[in-house]
Known about the structure:
This protein is of the alpha/beta class. It contains ten helices and five strands; from the N terminus they run βαβαβαβαβαααααα.
Amino acid sequence: MAEAIKVLLVDDHQVVRRGLRTFLEIQGDIEVVGEAADGAEGVARAEELKPDVVLMDVKMPGMDGVEALRKLRELANPARVLIVTSFTEQRTVVPALRAGAAGYVYKDVDPDALAGAIRSVHAGHILLQPEVAGALLSQEEANNGQGRGGSLTEREREVLGLIADGRSNREIARALVLSEKTVKTHVSNILMKLDLADRTQAALWAVRHGAAG
């Protein structure tokens, strides 16, 4: 059997954490390894517990979700962060995605859809809704010039196109008959050459500049 996906819950409302834990604990492939009540505690617990996925609220007292995401990036923590929020405004969600979140769901999400979202981001996918993707694209247009794409090799362009399709490193490796380690190297080179922070920005850059499949 595959190892269970280790999940950390970060939300300042105990009732929300309890509800999430109750549902997730009945999933055979998901294990809740810990909880935290704010961003600072969430960062500390993520460093301690090494979860695969962090379910993170945005609005919390003290260190909020966006600041916690930035801190996790500074620490090079590999956990994938899925924002769970009751806020639908782009001005709330977009900063979290730009800070490194792999996607977001709303707190009234169907439980089965939440489990699917956790599995999806764990597999390396990016969860974006069209209106938020559009907002991010407009910001990327202002921040990143198309000319940078000229420095990519043909193989890196292939990898970038598959990132834009939402493929995980494992899926890219299978599609291009490469090792996952080689794919990870290509992804790192793409981010460096395009001066991007993460796969989300890479996928958006590819869509904006016609590199998507």
